[in-house]
Every structure is written in structure tokens, then in C-alpha cells.
Amino acid sequence: MAGVLDSGGPPPPPQQQQQPQQGGALSAPGMASPPMVPQQGLQQGPPAPTHGQTVAILRHMDAIQAELEVLIKDPAVGKSNVKSKIIDGVTKLVANRIMTPGAAVGQLATVPDSPFQQRKWLQQHLLQTVIAKVGALSHHAAAFGGTPENMIDKTSSPDDHLADMQSVMGHYGGPR
Fold first, then answer.
1. Which positions ≥6 away from 31 have C-beta within 8 Å?
2. Which segment of 12-16, 24-28, 56-60, 63-67 scores lowest on mean pLDDT?
3. Are 148 and 23 in contact (CB under 8 A)?
4. Which residue, 42, 76, 90, 152, shows the most beta carbons closer than 10 Å to its own?
5. How distant, in Å, are the alpha carbons of 55, 120, 126, 167 from that of 123?
6. Residue 43 has pLDDT above 60, yes or no
């Protein structure tokens, strides 16, 4: 399955630097943090993904997450070599046009031979997938939260998933 960057998923939203607070006050748990104030001269991250790009990211990550969860629940994981099952899962993602064949080959090349290491590999990829979903949603919500429904561009389509993900990768400056 795919790592966040290799699979076409976005990196977590860019973090902006805060200016030092006077008095060193810390936020209490459960209270909103002070607003992020970018310092002059720092490089800004990419703009938030559009609604269509966010939908494509979620569709992409959900498909990967589903395959990873099936594999992780397999009682053989960590005890015996499950590389053939991982290959089958990646093949499903390629067949469903979630991943390109090239990305699939790249990911499969990183699968370790040791059963224990395969379990760790699956767990790490699942964690990266969940983090990417949360990051994309957070990045989009920060920019577009409260936008009226009729003003949302809803052009993302499962039929154009690979093209949508290509757009996402271009948006975040990833591999093309």
C-alpha cells in the first residue's frame, strides 16, 4: 500500500511559525490556542486544497486505509510472510484506479521480507494514511470553514480520481 507521499496523498498542512508570546503564557488544555501569526519573510506553504481535491484525497486515503486494515486484521501478519497478500491488496488499488502501476511497483519494492517488519510496515502506512486524511481535512477546514454550500465547487469524481490526485500532487509540489 502506499506511503503518504508515494501514494499521491498530501503532506500534513504547513505549520506556520508563531511569534513569541509576551510573558510565556501557555494555553490550558481544551482552550483554543492563540492564532498563528506568520513571521515576516518566512516561506508560506501551499494554499488549502479545494473541495474537489479534498474529496479526492479522502477517497484515495479511504481506499488505502481499507486495504491496510484488512491486512492488519489477518492473524498471519507478523507471524508469516504476507507479501503475496500485500501484492493482492495493491493490485486491487491499481485495478480500482486508486494508484498508478508505477506507484504500486515503488511501494511494493519497500515491503520487507521479515514477517515482523511487514507488520511494522503495514502499521506505519496505516498511521501515515490517517494522518494524511486529518491533515487534508484540517488544512481545508482552516481555509474554507463556514463557506455556504452553494459556493462549494463539487467537481471531484471517482472516474477522474487519478487526474484529481495528479492535481493534488501538483498543488502540494509532490512527484508528478
1. none
2. 24-28
3. no
4. 90
5. 24, 5, 5, 27
6. no
Q: Give yes or no for a contact between 45 and 23, defined as CB atoms under 8 angstroms apart.
A: no
CB 130 within 8 Å of CB 65: yes
pLDDT of residue 176: 44
Cβ pair 55, 156 in contact under 8 A: yes
Q: pTM score > 0.70 for this model?
A: no
Number of neighbours of residue 75 by Cβ within 10 angstroms: 7
DSSP code, position 34: P
What is the model's pLDDT at position 27? 25
Question: Which tens digit of pLDDT belongs to each residue from 47-74?
Answer: 888 888 888 899 999 999 999 999 999 9
Cell numbers of 45, please?
A: 506553504
More confident residue, 168 or 133: 133
H or E element at residue 118: helix 115-144
Cβ-based burial of 46 (10 A; exposed 0-12, middle 13-18, buried ≥19): middle
Could you tell me where the DSSP H helices lie in 49-114? 51-73, 83-95, 101-108
- For 149, the 3-state DSSP assignment is helix
